[in-house]
Known about the structure:
alpha/beta, 3 helices, 13 strands
Amino acid sequence: MKKSIFSRLLSCSKMLYHELHYLLCIPIIQGWYGGFWNYRHKIKSNGGSENMYYAYLMRYNAFVGLGANIQGTPMLPHGLNGIHISDAATIGEGCVILQQVTIGSNTTKGSKHFGSPTIGKHVFIGAGAKIIGNVRVGDNCRIGANCVVVKDMPDNSTAVLRNIDIIIHDISRDNSFKGIYHFEE
């Protein structure tokens, strides 16, 4: 079935809009305003293009809600890649947040940890960690990679994963990567 000229034009204009948005967005946020965190602060205090802000985050598969209370500038050694920070989260100064971290709200009313996380000062959050709901992470805490924190952590504490199951196989395993276009017959 052939597409009408109108639907093809509409499709092209949408693609062009998104590409122009990214072309304009990235230099403005990364350069002219002194970086992402300064740009975020500028939008929060003076208003501005929230669409440009969220389009920039979409480019990195990230979300940092404008309502989030972030004190200082957190250190993101791997950039914004896959980071989600809820609109209602609170993060203290001097935090280090690695890639694929979720700091999310629990919006299920009546659940045990309904609400948003409060993270203290100088907290290290490892890759893939999840901090969900109304939990308090104290100052100077460490959260290990892939930990799921759903209860309060006192100051100067560490969360780690334990009890990993190891499965031993009788035969060797083929772990080679064949790629998406390789099909066995």
